[in-house]
Amino acid sequence: MNLERIPTVHPTEDEFKDIINYISESRIRRLGNKYGMIKIVPPINFKPPLSLDFSKFKFKVRKQQLNQLNLINRARLFFIKQINNYLKVNQKDSNFFCKKKYFLIDINKEKKIKLFLYDIYISIIKYYNQNITWEMLLILVRDSYNNALLIPSIKNVEKNNKLWKILSKQFNNIPISTLKYYFNKYIKDYYSYIHLQYQQNLPSLHYNDEYPKSLLSDNEESEEQDEDDSDSEQGNAEECALCYEYDHIEDLITCNSCKKYFHIGCINEAKGEKHIETAIPPSNLQNWVCRHCIMGNGYYGFHMSNQDYSLANFLEVTNSKRSFDNDNETLTRLEKEFWQYVNNIDKSKIVKYGADIHNTVSGTISGFPTSNYIPPNQKDNLKEYMTYATHPANLVNLPNSKGSLLPLFKDTISGMTIPWVYVGSEFSTFCWHMEDQYTLSANYQHEGAPKVWYSIPDSSCTKFQDYLVSSTPDLFLRQPDLMHQLTSLVSPEVLTKNGITCYKAIQNPNEYIITFPKCYHAGFNSGYNLNEAVNFTSEFWLPYGMSAINDYKVSKKQCVFEMFDLLITILENYLQGKHADIFSESLVRSSYNFLLSTFNEINKDLSRINDTRNFLPSFIDRAGLRSRTKLLENSIKSRMRVIKKNDNDENEEAQLYCTHCKTICSFAFMVHRKKGSSTMKPRKKLSADNSKNWMDFVTYVYDKRPTTDFDILCLHDYLTLVVNEKTQMFSHNSDDELYILKDMSYIDNLLNNSGDKIDRL
């Protein structure tokens, strides 16, 4: 693929020992900003020995079906499955199903084209939702709390002659009569069903799916039957997906697609509340399919093996070789073959990838030398070995090396501050994604065949995201964080044709690939290789980390860092004169400005809430949260991320996430009982500092009705969702409560003192 290569840089030994500051130099940052990635070739004498204990190194593999990773292919396959699920329930003729992926249409004697049903459907949707962008769609999803696309009635579609003329031209001048034939036969009834759901102003999916199942799970094709195959983890057996109860088993029915259980009574109750489920004909219970599986949940995940592989097993099973003839002709051929497999909806190719391996036993955590494991063949070379074990470019050390902000966080997060190992085979792939919270990443190749990378720099991200949404808006409606799931590919050839800047890199052993903030990257392995990756930060990352907070709110992805704790720590250290050698003036000023701006917004929200109703806030101290982490972990699984300080530390810190936007509730949150909720028992008002009673209350509610009766909301979403925009009056319940998580007067003093000191600089 004829793409411009990313630049390769060659630091000196001294520069390499101060690697984060080297990467932060303006000349290197300019390259990183332009290309999204750079390749670093270490000094010639830097050759760390591979230090894995292969007798203990075990890992599970993910199975990747390449043609389903193509975003358009997957959307087309999803749509066929959704139509067939609809037909199972609503078609009198049970033998009438759409069994073809596409239809071959004669244009003339010499030309035939493939006509996909999804392409007709989505072209109609796009006609009525023209120029929709990534930002528009996600904001609509965030603010509307329901469907965001315009779905006109079937009459409007059928009578719109302009629409059909445009479609005919779009599909290589297929006659309008032909297009209408396939629309009427296969799509019309299903389209009417979709329109009805939107007319009812329903949410896309009205129950939380803790263990989602892909609609394509039943269609998995395998070149060989592996004993280690396992489906995605499912929820508890015989637990109703709507009420989460196990009783009244005789009233349960099973969805024919996802195999989840539902009480018929719960479905009827949902109908009464306008949450229309699929009708349940008494004579057709065996073919009944839930609304999730008809509307489509958009979920797609990799099948994981049950078997633990050793490296020798993996090489044998994948027919991989440790050697590779690294010539351009071979690599060009493999690259072409890889994208053919990805783009061809008819031909399945399944590959195995040992990805995201995060072992905890010494000798299996990292391929770099460490003081915890010394290979037998290195004991006579201990001095040089320990030099590598302590080197700043060792990925075990990099997150905490000089210039990094990660040591200022209280937590360690595997895969962010602890390296993950990757064992590749031919055509195993990593799909388009950005790093969590827009951090930088370093990927080092220990041995094996080249790894091919593609990058889309920050400057083209918006155009790339707009292209994705314009291609499959229905998928992003159901999965707004789709591009954080590492399951979707679009070929660089397609991207460049659509004006999206894309670059390429070839990584060989003993080379680093550094990704810069907000760089989309993807790629594949040309054969067996062993890589390792970790995230890190620097001063210039801070604005990106802050911008991720708002970006994640609209895509409803959880942050992994509590950024405001970082800002507070920086200012505290600054006032105490600590870390003066790493805190630049610009970092302190940025931290001050970010914290001040957010603090003022929070105070405005608190004032607005209390202007309407005088809430008496309860204060939850951090020690109280830590002491009850196990209780929280069991009771609010979907709203909290537990981050361990280290493997041996029993003290864990819990983050509370907003039910709606998934943001971390950093300063305060509201407990809001939904309107019409009646299943909660009356409860006492909680004393201001009694975190134990608050935890017990949360446990009761989440265990009984985890998503039905109340929400934990950040202040912004509480004001957005609970306040009537026209009257500016609250539709709150009298049981709504306000909780404060940080000492606001302390932060106010911190800002005042920091501001005074900054002004004197």
What does it look like?
It is found in: Nucleus. Keywords: Iron, Metal-binding, Methyltransferase, Nucleus, Transferase, Zinc, Zinc-finger. The chain starts with 7 loop residues before the first strand and ends with a helix. It has 26 helices and 23 strands. It folds into 3 domains: 8-61 and 305-457 and 501-550, Cupin (Jelly Rolls); 67-295, no CATH class; 563-759, no CATH class. The strands form 6 sheets. The chain has a 9-stranded mixed sheet. Strands 11-16-13-14 form a 4-stranded antiparallel sheet. It has a 4-stranded mixed sheet with strand order 18-23-21-22. Helices cover 38% and strands 15% of the residues. Helix 23 (629-635) packs parallel to helix 24. The protein has 761 residues and is an alpha+beta fold.
Short description:
One of its GO terms (biological process) is regulation of DNA-templated transcription. The protein is α+β, with helices and mostly antiparallel strands and 761 residues long.
Blueprint of the fold:
Blueprint: E1 8-9, H1 13-17, H2 19-24, H3 26-35, E2 37-40, E3 62-65, H4 66-69, H5 71-90, E4 103-108, E5 111-115, H6 117-128, H7 134-144, H8 154-159, H9 161-170, H10 176-199, E6 252-254, E7 261-263, H11 264-272, H12 291-295, E8 303-304, H13 311-317, H14 328-343, E9 350-357, H15 382-389, E10 420-424, E11 429-433, E12 440-448, E13 451-456, H16 458-471, H17 473-478, H18 492-497, E14 503-507, E15 512-515, E16 520-525, E17 529-536, H19 542-555, H20 563-576, H21 585-612, E18 618-619, H22 622-627, H23 629-635, E19 640-644, E20 652-656, E21 668-673, H24 691-704, E22 710-713, H25 715-722, E23 737-740, H26 744-759
Parallel strand pairs: 1-2, 18-23
Antiparallel strand pairs: 2-15, 3-8, 3-9, 4-5, 6-7, 9-10, 10-17, 11-16, 12-15, 12-17, 13-14, 13-16, 19-20, 21-22, 21-23
